[in-house]
Design goal:
binds cobalamin; 214 residues; Methyltransferase, Methionine Synthase (B12-binding Domains), Chain A, domain 1; disordered C terminus; two-stranded antiparallel sheet; Rossmann fold; 2 domains; 10% strand; mainly alpha
């Protein structure tokens, strides 16, 4: 953490842990005015505070209501940061679909990832939380999205990521018919063209992520 900003970053982290949504917006603005980099505020103040809340939640020192008000403060703070993280006036370079999978309501990380991707000039269609596999597949198929971002924080919802990937592999979108007698892959063209590896660990496709995003 940049020494100059230790005080204001600690203040932001404390306010997040206490769930002070109004005050945190003022402190985030103060940090920006003092010249702190938006990415540092996110990582060294907000994420720091959320990790402390997470640790306390795990040790049963705080409970769901406290985590929820901290989450609300986090969302308010990231709203303030958003315009500073996004590159103004960047022409969209592609489209992504993002959501949390069926059964998962944790959307803070998803919202952050969305902001980061938007900051790279990618247009993002956000399907929200607790998203049905079929709805994701339909949206991806109907759109020209090149990237699908699936967020799952629970052990029990991880498998829904695989469900979506399997369903996407099986589907045949209107533009994905036969190609020289061979069936074309259901994977978005981007992955094949850019030779990236899939986010799903066991998938052998090379479609990891866009360069420099994650
Ligand atoms: C906040 C929180 C909640 C809030 C969520 C509020 C909200 N609107 O999001 C509430 C109180 C609702 C909640 C509920 C529950 N929670 Co909770 N929660 C958390 C907590 C404390 C923080 C998560 C968070 O937001 N972190 C901050 C963000 C910024 O980090 P992140 O989510 O990890 O996201 C980053 C990366 O993961 C990544 N990322 C995230 N998504 C994506 C997507 C893509 C495509 C990419 C590339 C990257 C990426 O990038 C993000 C930025 O770096 C975690 C503990 C922890 N320390 O993680 C537990 C935790 C996730 N919850 C847990 C549990 C058990 C639950 C409940 C089942 C509790 C209960 N008994 O009711 C419920 C389930 C609700 C549901 N159906 O989803 C467990 C999960 C354990 C497990 N292995 O399954 C955890 C780990 C706590 C614990 N240690 O026990 N929770």
């Amino acid at each position: 953490m940049a020494d100059n900003f230790t005080e204001v970053f600690n203040e932001i982290s404390d306010l997040l842990q206490k769930g002070k949504a109004k005050d945190i917006v003022v402190s985030v603005q103060k940090a920006l005015d003092e010249g702190a980099a938006p990415g540092d505020i996110l990582e060294n103040a907000l994420m720091e505070g959320m990790n402390i809340v997470g640790g306390k939640f795990k040790r049963n020192e705080v409970f769901v209501p406290e985590v929820l008000i901290a989450a609300r403060a986090m969302n308010k703070a990231t709203e303030t940061l958003k315009p500073h993280l996004a590159k103004a006036g960047v022409k969209p370079v592609g489209k992504a679909v993002i959501c949390t999978v069926k059964g998962d309501l944790h959307d803070i990380g998803k919202n952050l990832v969305k902001m980061m991707i938007e900051g790279k000039g990618i247009e993002v269609e956000d399907l929200g939380v607790d998203c049905d596999t079929q709805k994701i597949v339909d949206t991806v198929t109907a759109s020209d999205a090149k990237v699908v971002c699936l967020s799952a924080l629970l052990t029990t919802t991880m498998t829904a990521q695989k469900d979506v990937i399997d369903a996407l592999k099986k589907r045949r979108s209107p533009g994905q018919g036969k190609n020289n007698g061979r069936r074309r892959s259901g994977y978005p063209e981007f992955f094949r063209r850019n030779r990236r590896r899939c986010l799903y660990p066991r998938c052998r496709q090379r479609c990891r992520s866009l360069p420099g995003i994650f």
